[in-house]
């Protein structure tokens, strides 16, 4: 018997990290992150295919590489690879323009952690202004896109 539940996998690239989030029945069931898949772009496609095979989504979501906002060159390149992988897949896919309602990414992550408590353990604390952004924010960037599709308003 085939599983007909909605299995949404969102992928994000941020600060040298590639991350995937799987939402099933409005719960975050799985998440994964790789820095190697961004540092060596030859590994982006294979890592993404590995996650798709493992998570078995029926809907794939990522940021539109043609309108990536403030993404750097490496991130945009990875987004293009993600788009190519999605094009070769039988699953439905969406490429979104990233929108953020909150004042900053840490507030957005905190709101999402409240809505999806299964991933609250990954919620990063906001670092001092002189320190680097926490790499775990990439999970919440992926989750924000998935949430937007799962709960459109």
Secondary-structure map:
Layout: E1 7-14, E2 17-24, E3 27-34, H1 36-39, H2 44-55, E4 59-63, H3 73-87, E5 92-96, H4 105-115, H5 137-150
Parallel strand pairs: 1-4, 4-5
Antiparallel strand pairs: 1-2, 2-3
Helix pairs in contact: 2-3, 4-5
Structure explained in plain terms:
By secondary structure, this protein is of the alpha/beta class. It has 5 helices and 5 strands; from the N terminus they run E-E-E-H-H-E-H-E-H-H. Strand 2 and strand 3 form a beta hairpin. Helix 2 (44-55) packs across helix 3 (73-87) and helix 4 (105-115) crosses helix 5 (137-150). The N and C termini lie far apart (33 Å).
* C-alpha-based Rg, rounded: 15 Å
Largest β sheet strand count, sense and barrel closure: 5 strands, mixed
> Count of DSSP helices?
5
Tell the overall outline: globular
Total strand segments? 5
Helix content range: 25-40%
Main sheet strand line-up = 3-2-1-4-5
Low-confidence stretches: none
Structural class call reads alpha/beta
Strand content: 15-25%
What is this structure, in a nutshell?
With 153 residues, the protein is of the alpha/beta class. It has helices spanning 36-39, 44-55, 73-87, 105-115, 137-150, and strands spanning 7-14, 17-24, 27-34, 59-63, 92-96.
Please supply descriptive tags for the structure shown above:
five-stranded mixed sheet; 5 helices; globular
């Amino acid at each position: 018997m085939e599983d007909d539940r909605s299995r949404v996998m969102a992928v994000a690239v941020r600060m040298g990290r590639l991350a995937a989030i799987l939402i099933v029945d409005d719960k975050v069931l799985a998440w994964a992150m790789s820095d190697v898949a961004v540092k060596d772009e030859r590994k982006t496609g294979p890592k993404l295919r590995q996650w798709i095979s493992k998570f078995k989504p029926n809907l794939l979501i990522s940021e539109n590489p043609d309108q990536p906002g403030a993404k750097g060159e490496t991130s945009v390149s990875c987004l293009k690879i993600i788009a190519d992988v999605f094009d070769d897949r039988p699953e439905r896919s969406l490429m979104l323009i990233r929108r953020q309602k909150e004042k900053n990414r840490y507030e957005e992550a905190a709101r999402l952690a409240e809505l999806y408590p299964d991933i609250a353990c990954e919620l990063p604390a906001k670092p001092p202004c002189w320190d680097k952004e926490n790499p775990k924010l990439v999970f919440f960037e992926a989750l924000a896109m998935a949430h937007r599709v799962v709960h459109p308003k």
